[in-house]
């Protein structure tokens, strides 16, 4: 029986089992029930603590899979449907027409150091209601590969670790140029870099910036959006 308090491999050699729930496994005490905005069949949409800017959301699978490139192909229809919901929410609630979506594919995000020093991960797509220009941060040190979009066929051919980025000017993944670079990329933490580039260095870690007031507002905004959606906002 599936226990959300534990990390499971589910046949994925890159997802290491551990008794400690990761940040995106449901049952983790850091992920409260009201933060889960949509519960799908295989994935959920949540509002994380430590809002980089108000409106940040995350799409993640229930299963502890190392990255979206290793997710079952059947997940992608629901992933795209949730992504479209986020895009519409951003347009309605924040007037945002150029959001950013990125995933650290077995690269830093969602990693825990296990008892033998390994880095298990839980796939999650970060959604931000504004442009971030991550290319400037990633392109100088990593190989840039252009994709047609976020789909299983495109991602399944990408070697890991990687960083997937979708912004207004296109979609790309960034992979390491060398074995040493792969090890470094696996440990990279993008959020502090993004916060620094935005002039908000204190928001790089949710522990120092839990942002509960912003979290409350985005949950309220999404609740109002779903209510309006149900009545037909056009």
List keywords for this structure.
234 residues; alpha+beta
Description:
The protein is of the alpha+beta class. Helices cover 28% and strands 17% of the residues. It contains six helices and eight strands, in the order E-E-E-H-E-E-H-E-H-E-E-H-H-H. It has helices spanning 76-94, 134-138, 152-155, 179-187, 190-197, 212-231; strands spanning 36-39, 43-46, 57-61, 100-105, 125-128, 143-146, 162-167, 170-175. An eight-stranded antiparallel beta sheet has the order 1-2-3-5-4-7-8-6, with helices on both faces. The chain starts with 35 loop residues before the first strand and ends with a helix.
User: What is the share of helical residues?
Assistant: 25-40%
**Proportion in β-strands:** 15-25%
Cα distance spanning the termini: 42 Å
What integer value in Å does the Rg equal? 17 Å
Major sheet summary line: 8 strands, antiparallel
Report the average pLDDT across residues.
81
The helix count comes to: 6
Q: What's the helix and strand layout?
A:
Layout lengths: L35 E4 L3 E4 L10 E5 L14 H19 L5 E6 L19 E4 L5 H5 L4 E4 L5 H4 L6 E6 L2 E6 L3 H9 L2 H8 L14 H20 L3
Antiparallel strand pairs: 1-2, 2-3, 3-5, 4-5, 4-7, 6-8, 7-8
Provide a brief overview of the structure:
The protein is an alpha+beta fold and 234 residues long.
